[in-house]
Amino acid sequence: MDPAPMLKAALALLTLTALGGVAMGVIRLGRNANPPSWLAMLHGLLAAMALSLLLYAYLADGMPALAGWALLAFLVAGAGGAYLNLRYHVRAVLLPKSLTVVHAVIAVAGYVLLLIAVFA
User: Which domain holds residue 109?
Assistant: First the structure.
């Protein structure tokens, strides 16, 4: 099975995820408030869908090395996002800016790696 269609679908989902992430970053860093729960849940759901596709492509049929590194980055970013949600957002505690930025940087690194893997 060719992993390219799954990688492209994951990239499309992650593009939507990134748009939601940017919106949440602007809300958190600009307005000094937590983003709405529906946006955080949609962001996590889209990311999980993309992560599932990447994981399936990795396990079922080999994929480019850069895509494997992207998968690793997204797993770390996903764990960080789950931590932010469960430790802060659910309890209505303001998300720490430092952890939010670290989550975003790791996710952007994964996105760039996947982008290069898909179009290289």
Answer: 4-119
